[in-house]
Structures are given as C-alpha cells and as structure tokens.
Amino acid sequence: MTSSVIGNVDCKKTMMEKRAKKWGFEGQTGLKATSAVTVRGVLNMLIEGLNKEDSRPVIPLGHGDPSHFPSFRTDAVAENAVIDSLRAAKYNCYSPTVGVSSARRAIADYLSRDLPYTLSPDDVYLTLGCTQAIEIALAVLARPGANILLPRPGYPYYEACATYNGLEVRHFDLLPEKEWAVDLNAVETLADENTVAMVIINPGNPCGNVFSYEHLMEVS
Predict the structure, then answer these.
(1) Is the confidence at residue 150, as pLDDT, over 80?
(2) Which of 72, 147, 149, 159 has the fewest C-beta atoms lying within 10 Å of its C-beta?
(3) CA–CA separation, 127 vs 98, rounded Å?
(4) 168-175 β-sheet, strand order
(5) What is residue 108's predicted lDDT score, i.e. its pLDDT?
(6) CATH number of 128-220
C-alpha cells in the first residue's frame, strides 16, 4: 500500500512538472519587429491624439477605401454583371487557383492593347487583392541568400512578407525634395547579383506621388 501511494505521488509530481514547462510556441522575432510600425498604427496614434472636445469634422485622409464615401459608386454595369453571374448559378463552386479562365482572357485582351505583344490568359494570375499578390510574388522570388530592394517610405506589408520568406530587405530612399523620386545612386549601391527584385509602387503609397515616364525609364 505504501509503495502504491508513493508511486501515485511521484506520478502526479511528474505530471505537474510537465504542465509547469513553458510551451515553445513563439512568433518569428523578425516578423514581429517588422509589423510593429504600420501606416494604420501611425494613423490610429494620430487619431487618438485629437482633442475630443473639438467639434470640428475630421477629414480622414488616411482612409484607403474610396467606396466608403458616397461620391464613389460602383458603375451600374459592373453591379449588374455581378448580379447576372450570381443568378446564372454557373460560378457557385471553387474556382481555379489562378482565376476563372474567362476573367483571365478578358484581362489579357485589355492589357494587350497597350503592349507591343499579345498576352494570353496563361500570362495572367488573379489574386484576392494586393495582399495575396505580394505574398505569392515574394514566395516565388525567395531563395537562400537573396535580397529585395524596397522603397522608404513604402507599404509595410512587403517587409513582413519578405521577412517571412527569408529574403534580406534593403531599403532605397524616395527623395521628398524631388517629388519622392527614387534615389538612383542608392539603388546602384544596394543592388548586387543576389538582388531578385526591386519594388516600385506607382502611384506611390503612402506618398501619393506619380513617377514620370522618364523617371521610370531611369529606374529600369
């Protein structure tokens, strides 16, 4: 009886020690640091600093969704096309990963009008917004030892995805005194044989600038 009691005590003690151990679940340090400062976070900080007693209306210049405002409405042609598609019951299933073939064909035809060559539907890959597009593009480009050139200031999600995929991030500055043009000297210094991509956001986010055709040719 005594050994049985001692055995139960030892068993409970071992179980308590196991429970006391800290779980090893922990986020990626680099990714956490990258996501610490975001455009939305800075905007929220500014909003929190507003005088609550000031009754004047605030214009939300940081609002990125134009459909939130009544002056920006989706064209009736587009709305009716969505309704007709829904009622047709032809697309109520999982779509191909790369996008519906008819949509890719329409996009290829539209883009080919301004190109010296003709795109095919196989050249088009549809994503669920820019966020997924960034994730897929950087995942494809990632390889050991590779680096990517990102604008500063720029859209912060690129840093997060690059870090997640093991890409080294190198920043080139946008020059405010030159209407946020790319610092070409910095790009030449940063780029090397392991540079897999350079991100150009045009029109710019968050600066709102639009690069001239001549400047884009200089960058390329």
Answers:
(1) yes
(2) 72
(3) 7
(4) 181-182, 168-175, 147-152, 195-198
(5) 97
(6) 3.40.640.10
> pTM here?
0.68
Classify 17 as helix, strand or coil: helix
Interatomic CA distance for residues 139 and 162, integer angstroms = 8
106 has a pLDDT exceeding 60:
yes
Q: What is the pLDDT of residues 168-185, one digit of tens each?
A: 999 999 999 999 999 999
C-alpha Rg value of the chain to the nearest Å: 26
Spatial distance between the Cα atoms of 179 and 112, rounded to a whole number of angstroms: 31
Q: State the residue for tokens 């179980």.
A: 15
What single-letter amino acid sits at 74? Answer: T
Domain ranges of the chain: 67-126, 128-220
